[in-house]
Structure formats: structure tokens, C-alpha cells
Model the fold of this input.
Amino acid sequence: MYGAETWRTTTTTIKKVQVFINSCLRKILNIHWPDTISNSLLWERTNQLPAEEEIRKRR
Done:
């Protein structure tokens, strides 16, 4: 996440970033509405960390 070192890390910002990332990952994996999977399974399939962990790791 480019420039994450300079972001204000409010919970609202982190949640918005996470929602955006999750929707992009679901589009990439071609997962549409009736075929839902949990966020943790989504991160496991794509080998991703939650946005909060990623942002805090970069600080």
C-alpha cells in the first residue's frame, strides 16, 4: 500500500480501505453475490493479510 506510512490510521479509514481491497479481490477471483465467501477465506486464497495488519506493519 503506497504511502501507508503517512496515512492517518483511523478505524474508519482502515475499514474503507479493507472494503475496497476485498471487493477488488472478489472481482479478480470472479466471485459474485450468490457465491459468497468469508473475508478470512478470501485472504487465505489470495495469500493476503488484512489491511490493518499490512498498514501497521509498514509504520
Residues 4-58 form one domain. DSSP finds three helices and no strands in the chain. The chain has one domain: 4-58.
